Amino acid sequence: MLLIQILIVAFAVFAILRALHQFRQGRLTRQWLAFWLVFWLFAIIVVILPETSEFAARLTGVGRGVDLIIYLSIVLLFYLVFRLFIKIEEGERQLTRLVRKLALDDFAKTKDENPRVRVTKSVENQEKFNI
Amino acid sequence: MKTIAVIPAYNEETTLADTLDRTRPFVDEIIVVNDGSRDRTRQIAAGKKVLCLSHAVNRGLGASLGSGLIAALERGADAIITLDADGQHDPAEIPDFIAALNHGADVVIGSRMLTRTGMPFIRQIAQVIGNVVTFILFGAWVTDSQSGFRAFNASAARRIRLRTNRMEVSSEIIAEAKAQQLTLVEIPIKAIYTEYSLSKGQNFFEGLRTLIKLILRRLTD
């Protein structure tokens, strides 16, 4: 076995252990655990038995097995980055909703008081809590 | 008719007091949206005895305008004016916006490109790019898609849904006005460019980020 094969297999085993650990901690859903297990097991098979990727390459019409793997990896990476992007956007939107609700609740509470009193109070609070 | 000015402010302690003083004669109420400023913006708003809505953390221009419009509607506004806190807009032009609303406009955009006085050349190019992007993505043509000086009547403010958080909101407002079939009118305004207000605008990379966000907004609609 070549050194690169040993390294990749070792990393795949490490990644599987991490995925299992994250799943037990409840940070990974069952579907994602399954995805990563299949992904890394597939990687181990292809690394140990490179002929399998050659077979897949011939099947899909790509020249070499290694090329096919790189193409697929790039597609997968793009997809994962896109997912992350959408997730972050969603998080940003929710954060804005939360911040807005807090601000508007505060605004509604103070608006009917005498402005002079309200102003002094908010300045005092601000200085007290160092907001 | 109750007119409320909504002024988004993020770290604007140097110009806010002056902007508030100059705006006050032309509106019934002022709401400063303090967007998580780390300077004395909030204290200055308090000192000037205007209403202040404070975001606990910085959420960007779009989020501030969204919050400001809701707060103004809660205060019973019939007309809502938005303008920048950095002093680049002349509040003395507010009556022109109100006049446009009274003539049947739902949304009024103050365009710096109808006069072009005092606008640096590089800014003019950036403007045209912003306008073209807004047109391609949302099919709405205006001469100054990035202007922060605007007016809404209450029903327009209620119908416009703002989902973007940051600078991309300017184009979003125009897109929404078109999508909601509101009457959008542009009126010429003069922009007062100072070194300070120029430093507050978008640079190249921010512009690029705004572009990406707008494309995403278009795709996920």
Secondary structure blueprint with pairings:
The complex is a heterodimer of chains A (about 130) and B (about 220).
Chain A: H1 3-24, H2 30-48, H3 51-60, H4 65-110, H5 115-129
Chain B: E1 3-9, H1 16-23, E2 29-35, H2 41-47, E3 51-55, H3 61-74, E4 79-82, H4 94-102, E5 107-111, H5 121-138, E6 150-153, H6 154-159, H7 169-179, E7 184-188, H8 195-199, H9 204-219
Parallel strand pairs in B: 1-2, 1-4, 2-3, 5-7
Antiparallel strand pairs in B: 4-6, 5-6
Helix pairs in contact in B: 5-7, 5-9
What do these coordinates show?
The complex is a heterodimer of chains A (131) and B (221). Chain A is an all-alpha fold and 131 residues long. Chain A has 2 domains: 1-49; 65-113. Helices cover 85% and strands 0% of the residues of chain A. Chain A has 5 helices and no strands. The model of chain A is unreliable at 114-131 (pLDDT under 50). The mean pLDDT of chain B is 88. Chain B has a 7-stranded mixed β-sheet, with helices on both faces. Chain B is globular and about 45 Å long. In chain B, α5 packs across α7 (169-179). The relative contact order of chain B is 0.17. Chain B has a single domain (3-219), classed as Spore Coat Polysaccharide Biosynthesis Protein SpsA, Chain A (Alpha-Beta Complex), CATH 3.90.550.10. Chain B is an alpha/beta fold and 221 residues long. Classes of the chains: A mainly alpha (131), B alpha/beta (221). The A-B interface holds A 85-86, 89, 92-93, 95-96, 99-100, 102-104, 106-108, 111, 115-116, 119, 122-123, 126, 131 and B 36, 42-43, 46-47, 49, 51-57, 59, 63, 66-67, 70-71, 74-75, 163, 165, 216, 220.
